[in-house]
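User:
Care to share a sequence and structure tokens?

Assistant:
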Amino acid sequence: MSRLRIFSDQAPDTPEFTSHDGDEIARELAKIGVHFERWQASQPVAAGATPEQVMAAYRADIDRISAERGFTTVDVISIAPDNPKKDELRGKFLDEHYHNEDEVRFFVDGSGLFTLHVGGKVYEIECVKDDLIAVPDGTTHWFDMGPEPRFVAIRFFEQPDGWIGHFTGTDIAQRFPRYDVPSGR
């Protein structure tokens, strides 16, 4: 189940707001310019599906969001707990950074934790199957896939190097909890 928790950036142990309701999550995130929505596949997506099969199941939404936001590249990333580079992949974006274009991800399966740092607040969004999140360019954030990552996500890009993170050098991400993926996801 999707979850949003909002903290003061000075109080990582005490959420000021918590919700599992998709509409409420979308409303709260919209206040800081972040887009959140839920999608449903137009056809079943089986375990082990190819990227082409995954994208075919969500083609209408992929085409809509690409046209609305000017994306030129769409791909599928799949990370499993047995990936030999899982620790390296996890560590890539654990520190606070931003991108020069919107970071848009749709979770086909599994989960991940986006944590945004905006206006003295920290917005922790657990994204799960069927969640789309669009983080505006320049928004400082970090992403944690957990110690045993398991997710399939569709990624959207305006430019081939849009995923490159520009790190802020702060330690704020280390002060907030890491993602401990609930069992069964």
